[in-house]
Amino acid sequence: MSNDRSSVRLLVAGELRDTAGQLPVVNPATGAPVGDSPLAEADLVDEAVRAAHAAFRDWAALPVPARTAYLTRFAAWVRDHVDPIARTLTAEQGKPLSESIGEVKAVATAFDYYASAAPHVLGETIPTASPTLRSTVLRQPSGVVGAIATWNYPLGILAWKLAPALAAGCTVVAKPAEQTPLSTLALAEGFVAAGFPAGVVNLVAGPGATVGAALAAHPLVRHLTFTGGTGTGKTLMRVAADTLKRLTLELGGGSPLIVAADAPLERAVADGVKRAFRNSGQLCNSVQHIYVEAAVADEFTERFVTAAATMRIGRGDAAPEPDMGPMCGEAALQHVTDLVEDARAAGATVLTGGQRLTGPEYDGGWYFPPTVLTGVTDTMRISSEEVFGPVAVITVVSSVDEAIERANAGESGLVAFLYTTDLRTATLGAERLEYGTVNINNVGGGDVPFPYAGWKQSGLGVELARDGLTAFLETKHVRVELGY
């Protein structure tokens, strides 16, 4: 794969395309240009969707082993190009290079996983009351999939959508976020190299208001899958309603971390810092609200603040590598700044961090330090809005029951974390927390073998695991009378 940014092109109907319009991309660590992405317009989105529609019948009809062989070849290509793609990802998104390398490798893992999972999707035969009546259930691909990814994990999240959709027999038109299109478009060469038939995979780039809206509204798109903000998800849902598209939405998070009095404290602190500040807090499952039982609140807070305050911040491609890079854009940084200032003005205490980093090493970039707040009340904006930045709020509670009640009171329900050494607390807590994923004494994120679902306003449907594959299959009942 070439490192020349002019080689980054769209993929439409099996062809690598340049366009007259260009989408500038900026390095969040410096504010300097990274490159330009070709910019799709609504007519090119229509061409891509129609190409996917034309390719669907033959792709869906391929025997599963033949179809999944394409996924395996693509995974091998990705593994051969990890370094240049990861460097592009760090340049446009800001995360440390080792995290970008892990994300690129996760793309190959997802494609290999769904290549191996596809043969295990089975139909069934249902017994009937008649000796001459046969009733069978088929699982068949739903059609053209429109996939829209976000900028925090642009490659990993897109792989969660593309790999199962393709394995199921669907064709796809995918759109990366406008902040981070270059690393996604770098994959176009891989799809061509893997030999995917023309129209099976299409990659188009541009703003959500044009490209995303065109995908959501197109009548030939039968399934729309999106990861991003809850507000945008609701907008896409309204647009998709006109054609009754299937929807998979993975939306806002803002996760709670509950620390019981008997928690393994050292682990809770280390894991909490990791999940609160990884990728500059720009994760849908980032720890935002920490509820600590009073008996260990002082010790936990002191350890947590010390760990946060000593994190190293800098360019993701620096050596030695920092613990945390910049935020992805000025708007994201301003949102975090506003939420912290609102809380501070209303009486919250900032224990560390709290304002944009300045100085020669940060000039031009969008750096916000790990920030810890206490004294936050339910009336402050930070209590009800997703921060999506490196900010954690510590609240002292009288019991785990109170913590669970507070954690369940919000509108999000993606991931929750509970630290305790008591089996009863862990078991009942996991059952009572109203979240699609509950982690006990760990902060693992989304991984392909395990289902990932958003409850309440954190989404619709399930990604990953076998559920992520069956999401792209329609159910068909076939009833045959043999006694004619």
UniProtKB/TrEMBL annotation:
- Keyword Oxidoreductase part of the UniProt annotation: yes
Per the record, the domain of life is Bacteria
Q: Which InterPro entries match?
A: Ald_DH/histidinol_DH, Ald_DH_C, Ald_DH_N, Aldehyde_DH_dom
Question: Which UniProt keywords are present, listed alphabetically?
Answer: Oxidoreductase
Q: Where is the Aldehyde dehydrogenase domain?
A: 21-478
Keyword Oxidoreductase among record annotations: yes
Query: Which protein are we looking at?
Result: Aldehyde dehydrogenase family protein
- Native source species: Planosporangium thailandense
Classification of source organism: Bacteria, Bacillati, Actinomycetota, Actinomycetes, Micromonosporales
